[in-house]
Predict the structure of Redoxin domain-containing protein.
Amino acid sequence: MSDISRALRRRTLASLASFAALAAAPTTLVAATRGTGAPGRFEAVAVDPRDARPAVLQAALEPLRNRAVLVNFWATWCEPCRAEMPALVRLDAAEAGLALLTVAVADREGDVRRFFAARGLDPLVVADPEQIIARAWDVRFLPTTFLLDASHRPRHRIRGELDWNDPAVRERVMTLVAPPNDPTPH
């Protein structure tokens, strides 16, 4: 089998897996990804703040110190990922206390560059062609977004496509990554 045939087969299988995973997603999330249900409603699952950071991801997070971070696992061959990326980049630009770090899973560098160039986008991208980061973070389907607090501890995971332009979604995300209120009087 040629390299091209293998690549096409891999992309086809990955796309089918992505669609199957979306079909198996929780009802709340599926409703949010298809534009139905209450505005801003999505399932943000609390995650264990285990430190599963391969060196390449740690290096990418270092310049984002003291900022909450959305770590978005995506791929150019994943249609829901492609659909939500422009809104994620706009959210990153609009919120000073929030940064976006994208992890291109099982994708080719040239495809990623062409995707962003065609849309005039320039997010921070970490390549994960061998899915090392995705496996370390237990990412089983795309897109998956982790919300990290300003200390870069994973706090929540969102599986599936969201309308990141929705003001209610943005408000909820900012609430989830905000530092907890200090209960001591000043």
Remarks:
- Residues 3-177 form a domain with the Glutaredoxin fold (CATH 3.40.30.10).
- Residues 3-23 form the longest helix (21 residues).
